[in-house]
# Entry
Amino acid sequence: MNTVWIIAALVVIALLAGIAVYYLREVHKLDQRRAEQRKELEEFSNERREHANLSIQVIAGSIVEDQMTLTEGAIRLRGLLESLGADEAIQEEFTAFYQLAKATEHIPIMEEWKKLKIKQKLSYDSERETQEKTHRDFVLDAAKRIKGRTF
# Structure
């Protein structure tokens, strides 16, 4: 009778060991999938950061070369810097973009702009141009300084 109990105990131990091995393998597979997902996410994040930094260079160049309005450039650069998680020191260094974007953020854009009457558009354009004159030297200086930088 003791032999039967010993054999039964050994079978139970073997069964439990098999279950433990199965779950250890599943945990290992899960860890591998998570590591792969982390790597993919990191690669995506790096590509996004690289693309944003390239966009910053193109926009800064467009501002300096007078190929876009200062307001549009400032709004885009502020957005890109924020998307990259620019810290307070970077925001302070390139405050000209933030200040001009803030001064003109109430002006409608895209579909809302299209809905405006000509008189309203002219009024907003005049206001934008006034803000651009006020901020021009600072924005141009910031655009020149941001060229070649990565964030």
In short: The chain has one domain: 2-146. The mean pLDDT is 96. The first helix runs from residue 2 to 64.
